[in-house]
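Hi there, hope your week has been kind to you so far. Thanks so much in advance, here it is:
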Amino acid sequence: MSDTNVNTPRSGSSAASKGGAGGIWLLGFIGALCYYLHTHSGTFWLVLLAFMKAVVWPAFVVYHVLTLK
């Protein structure tokens, strides 16, 4: 058997040391979902469209920032 301890974390493999922007992205997703649900409320398909737009909202932001002159 190996003498290594399986419970010892490897250096640099901790998820906490990689960054914590997930919460910010979650808040952005919730905000975008609320916005798109407000503008696309009605049928099931419009709500589904609002959800899909909320998932890809960073792409909309980048597109509109890049089109500014």
